[in-house]
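Input.
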Amino acid sequence: MPVGLLGKKVGMTQVYNDAGVILPVTVLEVGPCTVLQVRTSDRDGYSAVQLGFDDKLSENDKRRAEGDRNRNRATRPERGHVAPLKSKRQRRMAEAGVEAPAKANCEPKRFVREFRIDGEEVSLEVGAQLDASHLEGVARVDVVGISKGRGTAGAMKRHGFAGQPASHGAKKVHRRVGGIGSLSSNLGTGTPKKGKRMAGRYGATRATVRNLKVVRTDAENNMLLVEGAVPGPNGGYVVVRVAR
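Output.
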């Protein structure tokens, strides 16, 4: 799988294509993404490229100068993942002649994901920056996000059930699921089948929308316009990968 990009959902708008037809599009802010790690089959057992997006800094940190940032939003392991830290372990490795892994020398990232590249040549190095120009010439993409959470919902809202009869004189159970047992299965025990669609938590799950058409790529502003809807709220993180 080719290396994609990480980003966030900005919102929806509409644009005109070359034929003058109006298209509903979702605006995605993709990049800049930093290559944090390059995994290899010899060392890690699989080949992948790990990308990071959005610096993990507080608003006060963002207003400070580059050399005076207080990284109070990141833990020491998170800082050590992207930059070399002085530690006893590193000193022992240096004394033993073990080469330390390459670091990206950047700020800790809020959103980190990996792209598998099994069977493909890795041409990226740790610390490289990827922006929207990385998707130039790509016609269609898959977008992965976390759908909006709607809390606990009934079966009609969660699964689109039609509900019970609502005519005059019908019993007042219009929005209930109905019978959930099954006398013809499970040895006649009448217990519900595993996976029975019922009321429960609705949304807040990983969702993938495949084969979205790329309408426009703005490399200068790191914006990507795709035709159609994308899961998640405005400001939610998304993974953009090349559609197969």
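The mean pLDDT is 86.
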